[in-house]
């Protein structure tokens, strides 16, 4: 389906080359576009109908009616009338306080280089006016606005952010998917009439540079025609040269096939992988969507987030940091604070993050909490240290103009005299610039 056309094959001499075939061997051979490896840091946005109850998790519908978890059932019995359905939440996704330009300005201030917006989660509600979700989308009900288009338009006014879109392949309670599942996926009515047409629509309308697939529903990639779609995406789509994809394209494909690897949520292996990877991490440790009942202790601190960024980048990965907006379109102050503090840290230490590569070693075995990156153009090694040493010894410190004195340590290593600095002036970690390292 949507493979390279015969007409296209007749035009090989003018550049219409169907380079990638609909096989994993061919799809996996495609290099990751350079912009993604250089970006290092992105923002994940989980926003949907689940933002209305904003309780427990973005999996609210499934936990309430699919699994009938007692806490969710009791929450509904206590706060909503009998007969209230999940669809009744949709009109309350009002987005009346949503300002896409404010969002984009905040994401840029965080130091992120790309965003990944949830266009459709497993609930099936599309945040754009999809013609394949005719009565269950943000234009037909709720805000009655094309939220994806508004964010994409605001983002394209800038040159420092790339657009990424998240899309769930399956939908928990869609009767077409349930029928295919009951048939052990020997029928494929749902992907051919719903999921795949949505993907083509997203790519052709919004032209994202990153496509974050999710939710295989335990169905194999052959059911989703994943390799056929990816061959079209890489050969013929309007973003064929720049687009990046992940590895969630069917049961068994995660951490094995596709573009870069995500492997599991909050994946942070602590060592270098042979393939590009991403650590998707939520500021709220218990949920990707906004939760009204969250406590302060549920949120990762700025220091923890910077440590995650440093460790991830040192091991060759990107950090995709998640926020969950409210039903009315706000990014609450604690999320804003974390993002702005990340940006402040990156203003000083960003040269050791962006456009860097993994060094020959990732972390220091002699001094815990020290991680390294390498800048090939400068032939410089950067050493991050996540805690300020008590003796004042940890060659230049980023953000400090003076050169630091140092001495060799036998058999190999350095002992660097740090300047007088209040550690709180730069929360989360500091970076040494080491030049001339062999």
Automatic annotation (TrEMBL):
Alpha-L-fucosidase is responsible for hydrolyzing the alpha-1,6-linked fucose joined to the reducing-end N-acetylglucosamine of the carbohydrate moieties of glycoproteins. One of its GO terms (molecular function) is alpha-L-fucosidase activity. Residues 1-19 form the signal peptide. It catalyses: an alpha-L-fucoside + H2O = L-fucose + an alcohol. This is Alpha-L-fucosidase. Residues 19-351 form the Glycoside hydrolase family 29 N-terminal domain. Homotetramer.
């Amino acid at each position: 389906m949507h493979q390279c056309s015969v007409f296209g094959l007749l035009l090989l001499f003018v550049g219409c080359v169907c380079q990638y075939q609909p096989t994993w061997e061919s799809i996996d051979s495609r290099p990751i576009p350079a912009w993604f490896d250089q970006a290092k840091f992105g923002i994940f946005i989980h926003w949907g109908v689940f933002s209305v109850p904003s309780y427990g998790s973005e999996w609210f519908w499934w936990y309430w009616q699919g699994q009938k978890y007692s806490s969710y059932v009791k929450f509904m019995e206590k706060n909503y009338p009998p007969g209230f359905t999940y669809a009744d939440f949709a009109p309350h996704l009002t987005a009346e306080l949503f300002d896409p330009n404010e969002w984009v300005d905040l994401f840029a201030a965080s130091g992120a280089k790309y965003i990944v917006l949830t266009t459709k989660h497993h609930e099936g509600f599309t945040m754009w006016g999809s013609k394949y979700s005719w009565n269950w989308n943000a234009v037909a009900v709720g805000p009655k606005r094309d939220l994806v288009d508004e964010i994409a338009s605001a983002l394209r006014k800038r040159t420092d952010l790339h657009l990424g879109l998240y899309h769930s392949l399956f939908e928990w309670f869609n009767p077409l998917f349930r029928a295919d599942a009951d048939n052990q996926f020997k029928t494929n009515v749902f992907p051919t009439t719903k999921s795949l047409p949505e993907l083509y629509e997203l790519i052709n309308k919004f032209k994202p540079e990153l496509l974050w697939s999710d939710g295989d529903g335990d169905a194999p990639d052959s059911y989703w025609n994943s390799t056929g779609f990816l061959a079209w995406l890489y050969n013929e789509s309007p973003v064929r040269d720049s687009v990046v994809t992940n590895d969630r394209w069917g049961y068994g494909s995660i951490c094995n096939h596709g573009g870069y690897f995500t492997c599991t949520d909050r994946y942070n292996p602590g060592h270098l992988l042979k393939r590009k990877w991403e650590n998707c991490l939520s500021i709220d440790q218990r949920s990707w969507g906004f939760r009204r009942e969250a406590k302060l202790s549920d949120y990762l601190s700025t220091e923890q987030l910077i440590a995650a960024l440093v460790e991830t980048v040192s091991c060759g990965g990107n950090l995709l940091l998640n926020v969950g907006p409210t039903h009315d379109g706000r990014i609450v102050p604690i999320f804003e604070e974390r993002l702005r503090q990340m940006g402040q840290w990156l203003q000083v230490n960003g040269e050791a993050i962006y456009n860097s590569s993994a060094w020959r070693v990732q972390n220091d075995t002699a001094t815990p909490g020290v991680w390294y990156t390498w800048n090939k153009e400068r032939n410089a090694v950067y050493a991050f240290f996540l805690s300020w040493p008590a003796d004042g010894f940890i060659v230049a410190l980023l953000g400090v103009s003076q050169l630091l004195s140092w001495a060799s340590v036998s058999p190999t290593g350095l002992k660097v005299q740090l300047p007088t600095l209040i550690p709180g002036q730069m929360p989360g970690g500091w970076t040494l610039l080491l030049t001339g390292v062999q």
